[in-house]
UniProtKB/TrEMBL annotation:
GO terms of molecular function: translation elongation factor activity
PANTHER family noted in UniProt: TRANSCRIPTION ELONGATION FACTOR GREA, TRANSCRIPTION ELONGATION FACTOR GREB
Annotated spans, Disordered: 1-25
Listed Pfam families: GreA_GreB (PF01272)
UniProt protein name: GreA/GreB family elongation factor
Species this chain originates from: Sphingomonas naphthae
DNA-binding as UniProt keyword: no
Residue ranges, compositional bias (Basic and acidic residues): 1-18
Transcription elongation factor GreA/GreB C-terminal domain mapped to chain residues: 81-148
Alphabetical keyword list: Elongation factor, Protein biosynthesis
């Protein structure tokens, strides 16, 4: 017998919606990152209150993620002065090109804006480095020259 004659609804054939994955490790946030999380939760709560039935499930899933991130947020430890850490801006040279990044929490990261998560390989390589130091990266010794840390 054809499945069209047996199924009771289209719901049973939809792809399952899984929860949004939570990054592993501690949820360190900068003050800006904490504010962004609070704003995101408020926006999703407002959207859920006024959403059509079809959109409610997805908004509720996003809201569960952001509420979890809000509940597990830890203020990032303040790095020593002139030492790269979460909340620092780092100017560096890699492959002859000078660049600048900000090291932030996972949810605040936006590579297009130069904000790199502390868990990203580039940020991990520079954590704890000071201006004038060379650090290993990408399997190469002293691949990165740290020029300035603010």
């Amino acid at each position: 017998m054809s499945v069209a004659f047996r199924r009771e609804s289209d719901e049973e054939h939809k792809e399952p919606k899984f929860e949004l994955p939570i990054p592993a490790g501690p949820n360190y946030v900068t003050p800006r990152g904490q504010t962004l999380i609070v704003e995101k939760v408020a926006a999703l709560e407002a959207a859920l209150a006024s959403a059509e039935e079809a959109a409610r499930e997805e908004i509720a899933r996003d809201l569960r993620y952001w509420r979890t991130r809000q509940a597990t947020a830890l203020p990032a430890p303040t790095p020593a002065e002139d030492e790269a850490g979460i909340g620092s801006r780092v100017r560096f040279r890699l492959d002859g090109r000078e660049r600048e990044i900000g090291i932030v929490g996972d949810d605040e990261a936006d590579p297009a804006e130069g904000l790199i998560a502390f868990s990203a390989p580039l940020a991990r390589a520079m954590m704890g480095a000071m201006a004038g130091e060379h650090v290993d990266f990408g399997g190469r010794r002293e691949a990165i020259e740290v020029l300035a840390v603010a």
